[in-house]
């Protein structure tokens, strides 16, 4: 430990006093159980199963430093106290201790008298006026919450008859099925993998965060009736996790900003999550599960630590993401991959790789993390405007040059991708809205789906896509849409309700004229790809052309049809719409492949076991000898 701490001792003189406030993180990493030889120390190492690694990181800055490595060793109160005293002696105030909820770590909490419903801190052995607060790793708690919701269902209330679960796997599976049924959707990230995650996928935090997100919470009332309570529960979880996972002072969501920027709203979100965790039960269990206790411990320690840090000079906000184990997980990933991929290094390899990571470009300074400190300015997300034609605007008639008039829609075949100039010039203006008969004729349902729910989802998704194009090309043509922050609530069209629900002020509501053009674009797109593509498992074509220039063909066709629209707007639509169809076809084909694998497995399980053939005694003896390992020359 002393060798690792030398890095911090050297860097202490150049570290700001506020940035010296730190947290202790520890976790275990599996290692190869083989015996190995450490040439530098001339010793035989192993066999070992786990490496215990302790890291110290700033809670108000960007530095982090591994300080301790031991094999098959649990963190004891003596080790922890010795480390706290050493850091305090070097001038690093220890504010927090972070770990997961493994049995050894929970045993450490008990030994120190730490619990979610009692003391969540211990006295600092080097400073009587300060406490050391204990935290459970919040991302691990979120994954366990997701797992229990899907496996057991979430019930509210502690009584015997709790009724049906508020949120369970059936609800989530049905939601994923509904939002995945159409190309334009209200939640493109939600898939069956989020609901049926298994093995390694259950360890991915982003899958749990996306499943229990604000977008999913807002999707549920739009898809199902009478599920407002489920939406409220998921929204409380998402809001609480945002507060406990803040990474910068200002973020895209108010609750995701550093704790203290929107203090009233953030405290209310944490209190709601605390109440939910105290009343939630899973399956037939009547008591709080360990991950619930970990959540409650972290919430109460976060609030207490913030109050304590308010007394420190220069403190303005708390980045709660610095109070989880992400830094350690990142270190483990670097150890496994940076110097040649080895997911299970031996103890000697682990020590060598840690040494190489530490002696980098600045061996006398603690290693930096990707999370920016509070003192660094926020990076701008500005991009240079593309040079091109100025916005071209005209009357409504100037936007429209017919493409389907002059010949019947049934003449659009796989070889007729774009009409000729003569056909375009001889055409007459169509109706303002897309004819339903034309949509049905080219094989596209009027709203892109069959069921009423899917129609609404597809309509919301189409409006969102139109708003996306309008936002990206706002400088080219500002008439395409209006941002929600520039609109009064009563001025938002009824059809744009989904955009208004999702928006935090910066989403764009498409104009009526642009949305009408967007729907007419959809007719052209479907006509171009009708009867194209490769055969699916059921024999039908996937309706995605494999011809060269697929995006350019669509863009050129639309430019001829709508010459007054800027070609950069049309080009962006062509790429976006092609990628939406591409993603949808890939998802459908993946489903076909999984269905084929399931059918093959079912056939193998139904195949009868062959009856053993009774041969001669000589054959029986040879078979027995072969089974025993006999060798025949």
Throw out a few tags for this protein:
single chain, 633 residues, alpha+beta, Nucleotidyltransferase, domain 5, two-stranded antiparallel ribbon
Write the layout of secondary structure elements.
Elements: H1 2-11, E1 22-30, E2 36-38, E3 43-45, E4 50-58, E5 63-71, H2 77-89, E6 94-99, H3 103-112, E7 121-124, E8 127-136, H4 138-152, E9 154-156, H5 169-179, H6 192-195, H7 205-211, H8 214-223, H9 228-243, H10 263-279, E10 280-282, H11 290-309, H12 326-337, H13 347-358, E11 367-368, H14 421-425, H15 436-441, H16 452-472, E12 481-483, H17 497-502, E13 508-510, H18 512-529, H19 550-561, H20 567-606, H21 617-627
Parallel strand pairs: 1-6, 6-8
Antiparallel strand pairs: 1-4, 2-3, 4-5, 5-11, 7-8, 9-10, 12-13
Helix pairs in contact: 4-7, 4-11, 8-9, 9-10, 10-11, 16-18, 16-20, 19-20
Domain Transposable element P transposase-like RNase H C-terminal: 323-347
InterPro entries: TNP-like_GBD, TNP-like_RNaseH_C, TNP-like_RNaseH_N
Pfam families: TNP-like_GBD, TNP-like_RNaseH_C, TNP-like_RNaseH_N
Q: How would you sum up this structure, described in words?
A:
With 633 residues, the protein is of the alpha+beta class. The protein has helices at 2-11, 77-89, 103-112, 138-152, 169-179, 192-195, 205-211, 214-223, 228-243, 263-279, 290-309, 326-337, 347-358, 421-425, 436-441, 452-472, 497-502, 512-529, 550-561, 567-606, 617-627; strands at residues 22-30, 36-38, 43-45, 50-58, 63-71, 94-99, 121-124, 127-136, 154-156, 280-282, 367-368, 481-483, 508-510. It has a seven-stranded mixed β-sheet with strand order 7-8-6-1-4-5-11, with helices on both faces. A two-stranded antiparallel sheet has the order 2-3. Strands 9-10 form a two-stranded antiparallel sheet. Strand 4 and strand 5 (63-71) form a beta hairpin. Helix 4 packs across helix 7 (205-211) and helix 16 crosses helix 18. It is globular and about 75 Å long. Residues 323-347 form the Transposable element P transposase-like RNase H C-terminal domain. InterPro entries: TNP-like_GBD (IPR048366), TNP-like_RNaseH_C (IPR048367), TNP-like_RNaseH_N (IPR048365).
């Amino acid at each position: 430990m002393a060798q690792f701490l030398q890095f911090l001792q050297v860097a202490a003189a150049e570290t700001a006093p506020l940035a010296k406030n730190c947290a202790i993180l520890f976790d275990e990493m599996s290692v190869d159980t083989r015996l190995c030889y450490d040439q530098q120390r001339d010793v035989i190492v192993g066999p070992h199963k786990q490496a215990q690694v302790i890291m110290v990181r700033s809670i108000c800055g960007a530095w982090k430093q591994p300080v301790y490595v031991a094999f098959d060793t649990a963190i004891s109160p003596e080790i922890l106290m010795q480390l706290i005293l050493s850091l305090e002696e070097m001038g690093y105030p220890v504010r927090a201790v972070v770990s997961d909820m493994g049995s050894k770590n929970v045993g450490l909490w008990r030994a120190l008298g730490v619990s979610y419903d009692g003391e969540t801190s211990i006295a600092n052995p080097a400073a009587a006026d300060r406490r050391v607060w204990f935290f459970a790793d919040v991302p691990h708690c979120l994954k366990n919450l997701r797992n229990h919701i899907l496996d057991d269902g979430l019930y509210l209330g502690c009584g015997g008859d709790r009724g049906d679960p508020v949120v369970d796997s059936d609800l989530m599976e049905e939601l994923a099925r509904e939002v995945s049924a159409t190309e334009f959707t209200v939640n493109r990230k939600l898939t069956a993998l989020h609901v049926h995650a298994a093995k390694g996928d259950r360890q991915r935090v982003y899958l749990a965060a996306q499943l229990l997100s604000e977008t999913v919470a807002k999707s549920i009332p739009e898809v199902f009736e009478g599920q407002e309570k489920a939406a409220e529960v998921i929204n409380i979880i998402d809001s609480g996790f945002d507060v406990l996972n803040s990474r910068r002072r200002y973020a895209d969501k108010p609750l995701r900003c550093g704790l203290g920027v929107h203090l009233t709203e953030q405290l209310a979100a944490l209190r709601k999550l605390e109440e939910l965790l105290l009343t939630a039960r899973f399956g037939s269990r009547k008591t709080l599960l360990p991950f619930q206790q970990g959540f409650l411990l972290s919430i109460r320690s976060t609030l207490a630590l913030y109050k304590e840090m308010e007394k420190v000079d220069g403190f303005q906000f708390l980045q709660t993401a610095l109070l989880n184990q992400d830094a350690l997980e990142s270190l483990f990933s670097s150890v496994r991959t940076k110097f040649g991929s080895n997911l299970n290094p031996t103890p000697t390899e682990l020590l060598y790789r840690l040494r190489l990571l530490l002696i980098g470009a600045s061996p006398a300074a603690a290693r930096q993390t990707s999370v920016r400190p509070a003192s660094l300015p926020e990076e701008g997300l500005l991009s240079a405007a593309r040079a091109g034609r100025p916005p071209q605007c005209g009357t409504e008639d100037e936007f429209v040059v017919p493409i389907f008039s002059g010949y019947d829609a049934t003449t659009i075949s796989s070889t007729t991708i774009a009409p000729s100039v003569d056909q375009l010039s001889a055409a007459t203006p169509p109706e303002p809205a897309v004819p339903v008969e034309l949509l049905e004729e080219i094989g596209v349902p009027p709203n892109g789906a069959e069921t009423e729910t899917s129609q609404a989802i597809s309509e919301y998704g189409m409006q969102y896509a139109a708003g996306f194009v309008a936002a990206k090309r706002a400088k080219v043509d500002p008439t395409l849409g209006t941002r929600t922050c520039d609109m009064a609530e009563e001025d938002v069209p009824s059809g744009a309700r989904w955009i208004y629900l999702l928006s935090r002020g910066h989403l764009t509501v498409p104009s009526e004229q642009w949305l009408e053009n967007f729907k007419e674009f959809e007719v052209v797109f479907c006509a171009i790809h009708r009867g194209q593509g490769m055969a699916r498992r059921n024999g039908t074509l996937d309706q995605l052309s494999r011809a060269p220039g697929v995006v350019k063909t669509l863009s050129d066709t639309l430019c001829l049809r709508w010459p007054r629209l800027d070609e950069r707007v049309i080009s962006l639509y062509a790429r976006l719409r092609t990628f939406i169809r591409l993603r949808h076809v890939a998802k459908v084909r993946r489903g076909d492949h999984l269905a084929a694998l399931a059918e093959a497995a079912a056939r193998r399980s139904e195949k009868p076991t062959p009856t053993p053939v009774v041969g001669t005694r000589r054959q029986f003896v040879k078979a027995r000898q072969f089974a025993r390992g006999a060798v025949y020359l």
